[in-house]
């Protein structure tokens, strides 16, 4: 018996030795040949609050926003900054090192007649998503809105959603932002449309009509909340098998609801659990009938300090991400304060978060310094970020990117880490880059560092410690791959230092 066991063990060991010499030699070309294209996104690591991919790598995103806020609700494919999102656009973004786009999928474009989806529109959105995938870019599917509806000089929901008769005529939009309601046409749209230029859109959230309409979405008046959730099911069906979906962003910058009937909604955090959470659960339930695994991005109200949700949508923080924005105002503190608060939320809600909008357009010296600080701070906290917005990249006189804005996007960063990242930092003064992580031996996919060509026009020099633990491979002109060497040990700390030539 003992002898048999012993010989079994011996033969098992020899098989193991033979197979490890056979299969474990690092073969970068072979790995990429076997795994072409983007990797599907996996789960959120609920201990580290980071997003992983199906290979177990921790993933980071530097992205931008592409949202068309008027009919036909999508950007044209012919390069024409700031109005396009086509081949030249994604090529430009890829060259800058951008690996994610939060792409507006307007409900207004998708369901122009209640209950009748416009498949032509949905197909156009899907083809734009495919174009991004062909250029190494993930898509965060974003149902976008600002001030909800055209009836309120805003956009987002279809025209059939909001009824002029919902509030008494003397309280109609934009009372009390203006004391007299705007004249409206037969669809309830302010007329002439130029009257919309006379008000500040962000203050329109405080009008009776807008609060009332959000209230009806949240309390499912006339099944409007169900229609919203049904639209999400439709969207998820479009993308069930799509590789480059980063996640589903349920609704951009949701307002608190009808604060005229319930003033407590204005207290930061209250609307999150009273109004938003039930709607997010309703939409997520519909998504999960057709798509069991994609990450669901949910937002709190725009001026939250700490999140007021009792739980993430459907309660499983391994499949959710809190999507948050930083602008000042409404955020009053520094970007650092906002990120620290969101990290506190992550710990409480056992999930991850992502900065999906922050100022990224030309401005005075103070604004430019604040943008620099925002991208540096987000990177320091290993928080993925997306600038607002893609179209602001360009000087529309020349159709060329502003070099200052391009530089904010063209930072070196680790798109994928085959282990647990400890820190990374891109120094925009000398373009040096440092990454530290501990190796996970069971992750066979490589660490990938994005080194945009414009930032390293003459190439770069790499040094790693311990050098023998990582096998370097140049995947393409801007991607350095680092495969874990056979003799590296699990949990071993490694560092990567890159300087420009
Ligand atoms: C690698 O091992 C860790 C720790 O045991 C585990 O949590 C993780 O899921 C594994 N990853 C893969 C890709 O197997
Ligand atoms: C559907 O979308 C396409 C593309 O924008 C548009 O041409 C068409 O008019 C839309 N159909 C309806 C019924 O709105
Ligand atoms: C997704 O792929 C699976 C497996 O190939 C297939 O059965 C299913 O019909 C596809 N779903 C959609 C919506 O294309
Ligand atoms: C845009 O480009 C034009 C032409 O080169 C230039 O005159 C203008 O100053 C640029 N605009 C800004 C804001 O830099
Ligand atoms: C960035 O690089 C410059 C020039 O080498 C150096 O003076 C500065 O201290 C570096 N900044 C950081 C934060 O390391
Ligand atoms: C680890 O392996 C590499 C090649 O795969 C080799 O160059 C290096 O000497 C090895 N290091 C140790 C400590 O065995």
TrEMBL record:
Domain (Glycoside hydrolase family 5 C-terminal) ranges: 411-498
Superkingdom field: Eukaryota
GO terms for MF: hydrolase activity, hydrolyzing O-glycosyl compounds
GO biological process: carbohydrate derivative catabolic process; lipid catabolic process; polysaccharide catabolic process
Protein name, as recorded: Endoglycoceramidase
UniProt-listed Pfam families: Cellulase, Glyco_hydro_5_C
InterPro entries on file: GH, GH5_C, Glyco_hydro_5, Glyco_hydro_b, Glycosphingolipid_Hydrolases
Residue ranges of every copy of the Glycoside hydrolase family domain listed in the record: 90-391
Sorted UniProt keywords: Glycosidase, Hydrolase, Signal
The family this protein is said to belong to: Belongs to the glycosyl hydrolase 5 (cellulase A) family.
Signal sequence, renumbered to the chain: 1-25
């Amino acid at each position: 018996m003992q002898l048999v066991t012993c010989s079994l063990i011996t033969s098992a060991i020899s098989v193991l030795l033979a197979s490890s010499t056979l299969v474990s030699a690092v073969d970068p070309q072979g790995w990429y040949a076997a795994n072409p294209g983007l990797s599907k996104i996996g789960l959120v690591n609920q201990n580290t609050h980071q997003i992983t991919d199906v290979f177990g790598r921790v993933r980071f995103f530097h992205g931008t926003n592409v949202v068309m806020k008027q009919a036909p609700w999508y950007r044209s494919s012919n390069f024409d900054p700031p109005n396009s999102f086509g081949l030249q656009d994604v090529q430009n973004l890829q060259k800058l090192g951008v690996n994610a786009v939060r792409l507006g999928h307007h409900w207004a474009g998708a369901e122009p007649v209640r209950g009748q989806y416009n498949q032509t529109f949905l197909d156009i959105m899907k083809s734009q998503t495919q174009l991004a995938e062909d250029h190494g870019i993930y898509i965060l599917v974003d149902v976008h809105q600002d001030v909800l509806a055209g009836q309120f000089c805003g956009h987002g929901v279809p025209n059939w959603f909001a009824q002029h008769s919902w509030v008494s005529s003397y309280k109609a939009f934009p009372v009390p932002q203006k004391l007299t309601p705007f004249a409206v046409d037969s669809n309830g749209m302010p007329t002439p449309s130029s009257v919309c230029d006379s008000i500040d859109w962000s203050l329109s959230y405080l009008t009776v009509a807008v609060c009332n309409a959000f209230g009806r979405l949240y309390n499912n008046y006339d099944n409007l909340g169900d229609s919203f959730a049904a639209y999400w099911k439709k969207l998820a069906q479009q993308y069930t098998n799509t590789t480059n979906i980063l996640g589903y962003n349920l609704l951009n910058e949701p307002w608190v609801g009808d604060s005229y009937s319930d003033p407590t909604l204005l207290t930061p955090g209250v609307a999150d659990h009273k109004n938003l959470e039930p709607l997010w659960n309703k939409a997520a339930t519909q998504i999960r009938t057709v798509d069991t695994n994609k990450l669901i991005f949910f937002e709190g109200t725009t001026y939250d300090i700490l999140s007021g949700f009792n739980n993430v949508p459907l309660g499983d923080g391994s499949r959710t991400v809190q999507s948050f924005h930083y602008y000042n105002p409404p955020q009053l503190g520094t970007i650092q304060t906002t990120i620290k608060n969101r990290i506190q939320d992550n710990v409480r809600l056992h999930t991850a978060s992502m900065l999906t909008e922050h100022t990224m357009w030309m401005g005075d010296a103070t604004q430019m310094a604040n943008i620099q600080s925002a991208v540096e701070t987000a990177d320091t906290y290993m928080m993925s970020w997306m600038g607002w917005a893609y179209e602001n990249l360009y000087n529309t006189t020349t159709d060329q990117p502003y070099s200052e804005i391009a530089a904010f996007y063209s930072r070196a960063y680790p798109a994928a880490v085959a282990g647990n990242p400890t820190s990374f930092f891109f120094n925009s003064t000398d373009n040096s880059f440092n990454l530290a992580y501990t190796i996970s031996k069971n992750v066979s996919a490589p660490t990938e560092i994005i080194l945009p060509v414009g930032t390293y026009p003459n190439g770069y020099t790499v040094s790693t410690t311990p050098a023998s633990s990582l096998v370097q491979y140049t995947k393409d002109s801007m991607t350095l791959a680092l495969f874990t060497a056979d003799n590296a040990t699990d949990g071993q700390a490694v560092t990567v230092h890159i300087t420009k030539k």
